[in-house]
Design brief:
Layout lengths: L6 H8 L6 H7 L82 E2 L5 H5 L3 E3 L9 E4 L12 E4 L12 E11 L3 E15 L4 E8 L8 E4 L11 E2 L13 E6 L17 E4 L2 E4 L10 E4 L12 E7 L7 E12 L4 E8 L8 E4 L1
Antiparallel strand pairs: 1-9, 2-6, 3-4, 4-7, 5-6, 5-8, 6-7, 10-13, 10-17, 11-12, 13-16, 14-15, 14-17, 15-16
Helix pairs in contact: 1-2
Length: 357
């Protein structure tokens, strides 16, 4: 090869036909691109028969008809290429095991997050009977701050003579307000353990915190709520039918009560935009991961782990309701219960209807 040579020029010179260059390229596998050949390249050229010069095969002499044979599998009758004709190699078939199988699943079960300890321990509750307020937080061990969090020490206004013993675990609560005749709402603030006790006061350490502890918060003996495991996948559809079992309503949201009862911050209600104006969030609008309170309690047979579907009247179709969310009961009192929103298609607010799943 010399500078300026091409496969077509070589074909004209050697084979006397420049159109036969593809056969030369086919014979030289080391030439990757037929338009790019270089000086000193070695080119192999074998005799090539033009398709137009090829002779058809001689007809065979007629023979006697053979005896009929058993039917056999049909053979490949595709025409065979003539000598010198370029034939593309067949594309290798995929192994049967690698061919993906089509699986039709129009409505797979939805995956839900697990209920965490923080959800159960910090939900708050509505209790019909007033919680005793005899044991309160009266101060911080360290001066300089009004708020205390996990790891801090607190002075408790009752000691050994009042029945407070070292090692005992208490729950710190903050009463907010009475709710629809169902009882008083309490925020769960923290858990503390008594470290030392004097005759009329004690020292306690905050072992678990949901919110900052303030002077005046109430202490009651801590009782752990046992929460059952839930199935991780549960189907949900806006067209779900109501079960008619244990019907109730959403009566309050924790977000709407988070600042109530605070001695430091006072009442600072959440704000939302409604009708183009700012308004207080009295109804409470929440979504997944939030806590709501239901007017369903032990009297209705509710218990922790029960699943409820939240329904709302359909504004388009009369006398029909749409499923908008799922909630799970975290804590149950006599007339009300605390529930976690595990899934929602729409915001949940006061007045939405719930029925057991």
């Amino acid at each position: 090869m010399v500078t300026g040579d091409t496969l077509s020029a070589i074909s004209r010179e050697i084979l006397k036909d420049g159109k036969l260059w593809p056969q030369i390229w086919e014979q030289n596998e080391h030439v990757v691109n037929p338009h790019w050949i270089y000086p000193n390249d070695k080119i192999l050229i074998r005799p090539v028969t033009k398709i137009s010069d090829a002779k058809p095969p001689e007809p065979e002499a007629p023979a006697e008809a053979p005896a009929p044979e058993a039917p056999q599998q049909a053979k490949d009758t595709a025409p065979q290429p003539l000598k010198g004709q370029l034939v593309p190699a067949p594309y290798p078939a995929l192994p049967e095991s690698s061919v993906p199988k089509t699986v039709l699943n129009l409505n797979p079960p939805r995956s839900y997050p697990e209920v965490k300890d923080a959800d159960v321990n910090c939900a708050g509750f509505i209790r019909a009977d007033d919680v005793s307020r005899d044991v309160k937080v009266v101060g911080r061990y360290s001066e300089g701050r009004d708020l205390a969090s996990a790891g801090d020490y607190l002075y408790i206004g009752r000691g050994v003579e009042g029945g407070v013993r070292p090692g005992a675990v208490y729950e710190v609560l903050r009463p907010t307000k009475s709710v629809n005749g169902l009882g008083m709402h309490y925020l769960e603030i923290a858990q503390v353990q008594i470290v030392t006790g004097q005759a009329d006061h004690s020292l306690a350490r905050i072992t678990y915190g949901c919110d900052s502890v303030e002077v005046g918060d109430v202490l009651i003996p801590y009782a752990r709520t046992e929460f059952p495991p839930l199935p991780s996948k549960r189907p949900f559809s806006p067209m779900m039918k109501a079960s008619g079992q244990v019907p109730g309503n959403v009566i309050l949201t924790k977000d709407a009560m988070i600042n109530d009862g605070s001695q430091i911050f006072g009442r600072h209600p959440n704000i939302q935009k409604a009708g183009g104006k700012l308004a207080t969030l009295d109804r409470g609008i929440v979504g997944e991961g939030s806590v709501v309170y239901l007017d369903i309690g032990k009297e209705s047979g509710a218990k922790p782990g029960d699943l409820f579907i939240v329904f709302r009247d359909n504004k388009v179709v009369q006398n029909s309701r749409t499923a908008v969310a799922e909630v799970v009961i975290l804590r149950v009192e006599e007339r009300a219960s605390s529930a976690l929103v595990t899934y929602s298609d729409d915001a949940i607010s006061l007045g939405d209807v719930v029925e057991r799943r």
